[in-house]
Amino acid sequence: MKTILIVDDETRQVKALSAILRRLRPAYRILEAADAKAAWSLLESEAVDAVLTDIRMPEEDGLTLVERIAGGKPHIKTVLISGYGQFDYARKAIEHRVVDYLVKPIGLSDIERVLAKLEVLFSEEREREQLNKERIWQDVLFGDASGSTAERAERCASPGGPGVVIVFELGRGDPIGLITELKRKWRTESASAGQSEIVTDPTGRRAAAIMRLTPALAAKPSESVAKLSRLLDHVRSDGGEHIAVGVSRTRADVHASVAEAYAEALLALRHRFYAPEQTVFWGTDSQPFAERISPSAKEIAEPLLTAIKAVEGGRALDLVNAFFCQRESPPYPKPGLMKDETWMLIWQLLNGMESLLSDDAPEWSIARLRERFQGYDDYRELRLRFKELVRHLLALTEKTQQDKNGLIIMRCQHYLQQHYMEDLSLESVAAKFHFNASYFSYLFKLRTGMNFSEYVLDLRIRQAKRMLAQTDAKVAEISERSGFRTPAYFNKMFKREIGLSPKTYRQMHGEEAAE
């Protein structure tokens, strides 16, 4: 509710203007004063948002009153009323940030114009105040905590009292849009439970609400929990189902202990890692996380690696269960610690089985696996994917033991598919895979049905066919990119294998022919 003070020594003018304002804005509170002295007395005792004052008044005129307001109460908006239609006062009025003029006789449209202008300014001021409050709370919660938290919280307009801190964690989607909608919903829904400020954390994926409960709610903990539960259900409805929530215990003075309450709400919310089906986590139900894991990755790694290499699936999965089973009930390990220990175990397994894993295979990329496992925000998903990885390693070990040479030839084929354009020889590739050349040649033909040179030539011809059909590169360039020594040799081998020259093949199969 806004309060407007009318100041004029003409009683009829004051009453008429007051009546019009009350009719146009029934929610506004209208105060009246007959002179500047009475007006200032009201300004000292009442919360006034705007003053409409006549310029010509006995003793102290309106300009003097405006000057006093600009110096002592600059947040109050001022409008001058003149009966003369003269603007000799304009320059001085501008110095004191007068919003507008009303010239007697005052018409209804003039009043509506001034009210609209004032309301724009009120709205802008409200937005600035909200932004300033949010910055202060962001500083308190996430900034460099110099000075006491209580002193910094006192800079906010609302007084302290019993309350909670609530942390909202967004799901996937546009964070700006989600945060904006969350704030709108929360401010609408929470008004019945008390006064609240809601701010965004630096990640942009969380928001924290500092909620000062009404005295009635604060006095009845069970009712406050029920009320907050209903509020959170409303906030999470209609598109907000992805939001998870952590709620601190009720604090006697939530502003004075806001940093501790925020940490407690965040701690509660982090338990979502172990209970992803739950949506609201209460500080009263949460325990601190364990600082260490037992058995650790270091203790499990060696026996697990031994079991995998021996293809002892039952023993391997028993060890996996032993590693994870201690995390099934509180106190849980910190989610980050759990993921770090799991990754350490994976890294030790991969390191111990390096000779069996293809360097070029994406599925065994250290960077990709680390990103994948660090990205799991669900303990059960982490456990499931780790078991899948162990089963995969068991199957790979078993297959390797059954056909070790076959695996090596498969790795060789993968290597040739990646390096066909290079100068390849039987001897160099055999050496790379730790074979002597003659045995490698025998083994390669046994496994692929082609001798080494035929296999490489087939790879190169297939790549050349693709480039001839799909690109406009010159034949000489395609020859080089396909791994042939010279264009002449390329032409000869291509015609021998395909029955057409490269040029004729392009004419028949290229994009131009298709058109």
UniProtKB/TrEMBL annotation:
Pfam families in alphabetical order: HTH_18, Response_reg
InterPro entries in UniProt: CheY-like_superfamily, Homeodomain-like_sf, HTH_AraC, HTH_AraC-typ_CS, Sig_transdc_resp-reg_receiver, Tscrpt_reg_AraC-type_HTH
Residues bearing the modification 4-aspartylphosphate: 54
SUPFAM superfamilies in the record: CheY-like, Homeodomain-like
Domain Response regulatory: 3-119
Keywords: DNA-binding, Phosphoprotein, Transcription, Transcription regulation
Residue span, HTH araC/xylS-type domain: 410-508
PANTHER family cross-referenced by the UniProt entry: ARAC-FAMILY TRANSCRIPTIONAL REGULATOR, HTH-TYPE TRANSCRIPTIONAL REGULATOR EXSA
Name of the featured protein: Response regulator
Lineage: Bacteria, Bacillati, Bacillota, Bacilli, Bacillales
